[in-house]
Every structure is written in C-alpha cells, then in structure tokens.
Amino acid sequence: MAASGDRDRVLSILRSPRLLLPTALLLSLIFLSYSLFNHVPTISRIGNNHIVASATGAFSYQRTSPIQNATLGFERVFILNLPERTDKLDAFTLSSSLHSPTFDVIEGVHGSLILNKSLPTLNKLPQKETARNNMLGTWRAHLNFAQRMVRERISTAIVFEDDADWDVNLRTQLEQFAHGSQYISSAFSPPTALKSKSYGGPHSPYGDDWDLLWLGHCGVSTHPADPRLFIIDNDPTVPSPLHRVNYQSIPNMSGFSNSTRIVHRVRSGCCLYSYALSQRGAQKMLLAQSTLTEFQPVDIAMRLMCQESDSFKCIGVFPQIIDTHKAAGSIERDSDMTSFDKQQARTKGFTNNIVRSTRLNWAPLLAGTTDAIEVQFPEDTPEIRGGVSMRTG
Ligand SMILES: *[C@@H]1O[C@H](CO)[C@@H](O)[C@H](O)[C@H]1NC(C)=O
Ligand SMILES: *[C@@H]1O[C@H](CO)[C@@H](O)[C@H](O)[C@H]1NC(C)=O
Ligand SMILES: *[C@@H]1O[C@H](CO)[C@@H](O)[C@H](O)[C@H]1NC(C)=O
Ligand SMILES: *[C@@H]1O[C@H](CO)[C@@H](O)[C@H](O)[C@H]1NC(C)=O
C-alpha cells in the first residue's frame, strides 16, 4: 500500500510540467551514456571463465571495475610503431578496437638517426652498424615511452609493440591479474624515501606500489626476495605446458594444475611485447637508462633493473597474457629491422602461448559469432575443474 502510494507520488511529481524538462534531460543523458557505453565492443566471456571465488586471505582488494574502461584501467594506452609500418598499425588498430578503443602512437625510431653523442655510453655497443642501429632504435623507442609518461605526468600507462596479440578474454584476464598485482605490490616495504607527494602511488586498480607490470614477455622468473604467489586456478585461457614457448627460465609450475596461472614479483624477464609503467617506474627508467655504463638490448636493461634494484618493483604473470603475433605471409614482414629471405612464407599465422588469439579471430569477433572462435592447440586442452578461482600462496 505504502509503496504504491509512494510510486503514485513519484509519478505525479514526474508528470508535473515544472519537472518535465529536467526529467527529459535526465532520461536523454541516461540514454546517451548507455549508448556511448555500448559503443565499446564487448567480448563475451568464453568458456567457464567467470570468477566463482574472490581471492582469499585478510588482504582487502580494491575495485577492479575500472579495467573495463576505454584504457583498460590504466591512465593511457600506447603503441610503438614505425611510421613506415602502416600495415602493423592497421592490424593493431583493428585488434585493439575489439578491446581498448583508445590508444596513442609513439613513433618508432631508426637507430641510424641516433648520434653517438646522445648516448650515455658507447660501452658494449655492437660493432656492426646494423646491429648497433637495431639495438638502439628499440632502446630509444621504449625510452621515449617513459619520457612521454614523465613529461605528461601520466600516472600509469600500458604500452604494446605493434605486433602484440592477446586472448579474446583480455579484460577478464586483466581483472584477475589486477587482484594479483594488488596483492603482490601491497607486500613490498613502503619506499619511505619515495613516499613524498609527487612520488606517491598511482592509485590504480592494479595496486598502488609498483614500477613495472610485465604482461607480455618471452619468459619471466620469480624473485627470491619475495616468493609469495597469487594463484589463479581453472583458467581456460592458460595454454597446456606442451605449448608454452619461452626463451629463458620460467617459474616452477610443477606444483600446480595445467590450467593455473600465477602472478608474482619478477626477478628477470625477456621481450617487451607489452608492459605497464607507473609514473615512478617511468622516472626510474629514465634515470637508469640515461646513466647506463654499458649497452645491452632494452629488455635485458629492464631485467637488470628488476633484479638489481631493490626499489624497482616488477610484477609479472605466468603464463604471459600478451605475446607477439607471427602473421601469415612473407616472414620478411615480421621484423622492422632484420631482412629475411623473401621467398620464405608461412601459410597460417600464430601467436605463442595464447589460446584464443584476437588476431586469428578477427572475423568471428567482428561478426559476433563467438561460438566460431578458433582455439590454438585444441588437441591439448588443460583440464578445468569448475570456475576460475583465485588464492594467495
Ligand atoms: C580508466 O581507469 C583508470 C584507473 O581508474 C583511469 O586512470 C583512466 O583515466 C580511466 N580511463 C578513462 C578513459 O576513463
Ligand atoms: C659510434 O661509435 C661506434 C662505437 O664506438 C663507432 O664504431 C662508430 O664509428 C661511431 N659512429 C660515428 C658516426 O661516430
Ligand atoms: C599436464 O601437462 C603435461 C604436459 O602436457 C602432461 O604430461 C600432464 O599429464 C598434464 N597433467 C594433467 C593433470 O593433465
Ligand atoms: C618444483 O616444485 C616441485 C613441487 O612444488 C618441487 O618438488 C620441486 O623440487 C621444484 N623444482 C625445483 C627445480 O625447484
């Protein structure tokens, strides 16, 4: 009775002429934001990929819902692309439109244009000119990303190399990863010297005390200084151990099921298909790279920062959630730097470590036919026992 009386009163207020205009405005605002929101293509969750148990333990997790926004819960999204490689920019644009509608391009750099005198050292620079230029071009592009973050005071940003690829469930994976990075970053001892106002945490859904999130790599290892793990079980996006391709040592996964992913502090890693920096991490990267005493490829330089500097906090995930796509066609197209034999071609593209590759699934994703999603390595699907669950260990 009371409820229906209230409803009648609300209706009559809404019908009163004085309120007609504001009500109409309000309704059109709601409609507008609804249609804007829906303009972002959303990928339906595939398989039994819902979170059934929230992470356990006394740790209290922050909201991870901002990860569903246009910049994946980071302040900005960037891609590294040489202006001549318009083909790679086309491909990245299409893939990213299916997940993260907005990104900015950081132009790749030709090593041949980098003067010796603009380098912190010439120590260990390769003697061969092409090798020198390859190493320096990549190093400078990643450094320009850090420089841009510092110049524009960006609190957190993720960067992708332009041939990066990821699972069609990227956003779900990032939300799960974020619980892990919040947990792992929380346990680092607060760097009191760096806790001044301008160096404060990024207040990010990925946690407030980290420098680098190593999401797209070709091998990563845990850190003896912090052996704690965040464990995601029954994850249908985890490739079978038979199909994990890495180029350095990896975490010991033998105590886990084949469908388990872990988030952990990183001691060493290789390849920079994609990673995120906090403002503090970008500042530290600029400092470390502009005072180098010997040259090495930029991923090794980042690895040294993770392992040598107690205050450079790197968090990783294994298996990786971002990898690099090798497209069908001439393999000459793979690299911006090296020339391969023009005759060599592959008939089908692939991406290591990614079960449902976005690049291999453009057509079904655009058509909205998620039941036609192609699975890599269907013959070896790790056993799943129930929904995704997360725990600390
Ligand atoms: C997405 O969320 C992050 C974290 O809250 C925020 O910094 C960023 O500005 C948001 N992006 C957009 C486009 O609103
Ligand atoms: C740059 O330094 C390298 C290594 O010391 C040297 O071989 C090369 O000739 C230098 N290039 C120029 C243009 O001076
Ligand atoms: C996990 O994967 C390995 C390698 O493919 C396989 O030998 C093993 O039987 C799998 N374990 C389970 C429980 O399926
Ligand atoms: C890997 O983990 C298993 C089980 O947790 C353990 O028995 C084994 O000793 C570990 N291997 C190495 C090389 O640490």
Automatic annotation (TrEMBL):
Keyword Glycosyltransferase: yes
Single annotated GO MF: transferase activity
Keyword Transferase: yes
Entry keyword set: Glycosyltransferase, Membrane, Transferase, Transmembrane, Transmembrane helix
Parts of the chain that traverse the membrane: 19-37
Similarity remark: Belongs to the glycosyltransferase 25 family.
Protein name in the entry: Glycosyltransferase family 25 protein
Taxonomic source organism: Heterodermia speciosa
